[in-house]
Design goal:
Blueprint: E1 2-3, H1 23-32, E2 34-35, E3 40-42, H2 46-49, E4 54-56
Antiparallel strand pairs: 1-2, 3-4
This protein binds iron/sulfur cluster.
Length: 70
Amino acid sequence: MIAVHDGQCGVCTHFGEHNQADKQVLTQILSSKQAPESLIEGCGLPKNAALHLKVTAVSGCDGFQPAAAA
Ligand code: SF4
């Protein structure tokens, strides 16, 4: 597991935004601030989604928006 900090994809509302199958793991990342090293999700920010951008929990971009804790 790796630590996820504020501003990184793992705690961004767009991380895996359209991947319903991973909702539980994404919620766990929000509460624990820890993510599996190998986890890669699509970015749902419209600009990035059009490019099918895939990111890790510790990636980031200026489109960051904090996810609401479940
Ligand atoms: S690439 Fe940017 S918008 Fe997409 S999940 Fe990461 S921080 Fe959020």
